[in-house]
Specification:
This protein has about 220 residues and is α/β, with parallel strands linked by helices. It has 2 domains: about 140 residues, Rossmann fold (3-Layer(aba) Sandwich), CATH 3.40.50; about 55 residues, Arc Repressor Mutant, subunit A (Orthogonal Bundle), CATH 1.10.10.10. Helix 4 packs across helix 6 and helix 8 packs across helix 11. The longest helix has 15 residues. It is elongated, with a radius of gyration of 18 Å.
């Protein structure tokens, strides 16, 4: 994104006061956001996404007509370049899991500070995850519970990673430590640590948990 471009943000929230309040406060965060007309339900979010082509949608989950998860799925099928950031009052494991599985790049609660919301929007635009370590860990645990060891066997080869880096990524998804990876691949632990750092940088994530989730869901 160049310095003169603004991030176009669509807010999908059925409560008018909250929707307009977020829009007002977000517009005050520097000058890098362009706030688009807000959507009052999931169906309108889909319609407005088609019309305005936002860079980021702040998506509530519980909305009339079409809920946020279904809206996320439909929008990303048509507009895969759009980034969805969930903003909700709900923090149950199943909703977090469903939202990220649907393609959401971040999951925030409505009591988050506006600075955190703004920084999360900027992060996902730059290809980074907006998941807190706690949320990321819960998602990964849920993936492993539902899919078991089969998830790593089905990982696609990620473009930009070498064959060895893809091999190490698969072992990270399986939950193996650097020591265990070194023993399995006959590498020094320091060498594995260097590989992991390179993989994190290439995949634009901050830690192993976010890396595993990105490998599984993106």
């Amino acid at each position: 994104m160049s310095r003169i471009e603004k991030i176009r943000v669509l807010i999908a929230e059925d409560q008018t006061l909250i929707r307009e309040g977020i829009a007002t406060l977000l517009a005050q965060q520097n000058d890098d956001f362009e706030i688009l007309p807000g959507a009052a339900d999931g169906e309108q979010a889909i319609e407005f996404a088609r019309r305005y082509r936002p860079d980021v949608i702040l998506m509530d989950l519980q909305m009339p007509r079409v809920d946020g998860i279904a809206a996320t799925q439909r929008i990303l099928r048509e507009l895969p370049q759009t980034h969805i950031v969930v903003l909700t009052t709900f923090e149950t494991n199943d909703l977090i899991f469903e939202a990220v599985s649907a393609g959401a790049k971040a999951y925030l609660l409505k009591d988050a500070r506006m600075e955190e919301i703004a920084s999360t929007i900027r992060a996902v635009i730059n290809g980074q995850s907006g998941l807190s370590p706690g949320v990321a860990a819960r998602i990964l645990d849920e993936f492993k519970r539902l899919r078991g060891p089969r998830i790593s066997a089905k990982l696609p080869v990620r473009d930009g990673l070498t064959a060895r880096e893809n091999e190490i990524l698969t072992l990270i998804v399986e939950g193996k430590s650097n020591t265990e990876i070194g023993e399995q691949l006959h590498l020094a632990e320091g060498t594995v640590k260097n590989y992991v750092s390179t993989i994190l940088e290439k995949c634009q994530v901050k830690n192993r948990t976010e890396l595993a989730i990105k490998a599984i869901t993106y």
